[in-house]
Amino acid sequence: MSLPQRFKLVFFAPVAAMPTIKQAIFAAGAGRYPGPGAYTECGFTTLGKGQFRPGDAASPNIGKVGELEEVDEHRFETLCVGRDVVRDAVAALKKAHPYEEPAYEVYKLEDY
C-alpha cells in the first residue's frame, strides 16, 4: 500500500496576522495528521524577528520603500498530506498573508 506524499509547510508572518493565515491554511487541509486520532489544526509556532528592505517598486504592508524594517514575526510549521493539499495550502497562505511577498518553504518528507 502506497502512502500519500507528506510535506512540511513553513512560513513567516507578523504575529497579528497569524490567526487569519492559520484559519485559511487549515481550511485548505493543512495540519491534519493521518491515523486513528484524527488530529487537525496541528502546527508549531516560534517567535522571531524578520527583516526586509522594500525595493523601489515595492508596495510594503509594513515599513517604507528603501528603509530597513524589523518585525516581530511567527514562524509556523505544519504537515500537509498530499501534493494537492500542500498546493492548496500555499495558495491560501498567499491569499491570506498581508505581505506582497510572503516568505514560505515547502519540504517533501520521507518515511523511514
TrEMBL record:
Signal peptide: none annotated. It comes from the Eukaryota. This is ATP phosphoribosyltransferase.
